[in-house]
């Protein structure tokens, strides 16, 4: 990377930190990692709007630019590869891990192989699991070697051993992800990313839109036209028409839309 490209990359990572509202930390320790992960989940939404709109989705530096300069979020591939670059720039040892979802919040399908991406961050020889790209992600690092319950602001997690060195991440009693523990390269996810962006069977194309962000009182999630706000344990659901949808994206996720995604029809008026 030449000097000009290096300067652009550093400028984007500095803008990334400003988006998170975190000054450049002095130490690459566990406390800083936990703060960065929590701030990421509160400021950068998990969202799949570009898949719906047919806009190219990029990993790594392209995802950093999307987060830092376009003020957008992204899917797990985007958010976690971008966060990996930021963490490495701050001095952390980071590996990409490949997983598959076991439950999507509505049912328990076996997700596509390699359909989820998480991070292993090693600090003083201790590996931690970090995820900023999943609705049921832990809000703080999970100790990879721990097999007992690990309490988190998003619930209780357990890491169970599986065949072939894999582990299963259980959240509040529900198996969410089966995860390989061998490191992967970003290129290993390219074919699956293409499938997500183009296949009719993909969960993020067609008329489907997902978005989620942690708030001070709970979480706000979007699935197609349904916006769900979790506030102090209470759930409030709104069905969004074509005018309310972009307004909700702007208000809750900070996303400015120049065109509406393809959405399912509004439900029939019960009256």
From TrEMBL:
Record InterPro entries: Arylamine_N-AcTrfase, Papain-like_cys_pep_sf
Keyword Coiled coil: no
Keywords per UniProt: Transferase
An MF annotation (GO) of this entry: acetyltransferase activity
Family label: Belongs to the arylamine N-acetyltransferase family.
Protein name per the record: Arylamine N-acetyltransferase
Organism: Streptomyces roseirectus
UniProt lineage: Bacteria, Bacillati, Actinomycetota, Actinomycetes, Kitasatosporales
């Amino acid at each position: 990377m030449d000097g000009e490209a290096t300067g652009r990359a550093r400028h984007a990572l500095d803008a990334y930190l400003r988006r998170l509202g975190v000054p450049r930390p002095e130490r690459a320790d566990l406390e800083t990692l936990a703060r960065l992960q929590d701030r990421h989940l509160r400021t950068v939404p998990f969202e799949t709007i570009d898949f719906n709109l047919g806009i190219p989705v990029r990993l790594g530096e392209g995802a950093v630019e999307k987060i830092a300069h376009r003020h957008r979020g992204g899917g797990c591939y985007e958010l976690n590869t971008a966060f990996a670059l930021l963490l490495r720039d701050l001095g952390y040892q980071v590996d990409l891990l490949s997983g598959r979802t076991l439950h999507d919040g509505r049912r328990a399908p076996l997700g596509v192989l390699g359909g989820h991406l998480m991070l292993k961050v090693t600090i003083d020889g201790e590996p931690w699991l970090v995820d900023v790209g999943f609705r049921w992600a832990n809000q703080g690092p999970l100790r990879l070697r721990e097999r007992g319950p690990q309490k988190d602001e998003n619930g209780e997690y357990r890491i169970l051993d599986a065949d072939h060195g894999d582990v299963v991440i259980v959240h509040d009693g529900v198996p969410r992800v089966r995860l390989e523990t061998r490191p992967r390269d970003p290129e290993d996810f390219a074919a699956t990313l293409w499938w997500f962006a183009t296949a009719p069977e993909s969960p993020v194309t067609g008329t489907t839109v997902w978005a989620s962000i942690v708030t001070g009182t709970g979480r706000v999630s979007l699935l197609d036209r349904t916006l769900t706000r979790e506030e102090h344990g209470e759930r409030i659901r709104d069905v969004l028409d074509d005018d309310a949808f972009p307004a909700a994206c702007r208000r809750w996720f900070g996303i400015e839309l120049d065109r509406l995604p393809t959405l399912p029809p509004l439900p029939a008026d019960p009256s």
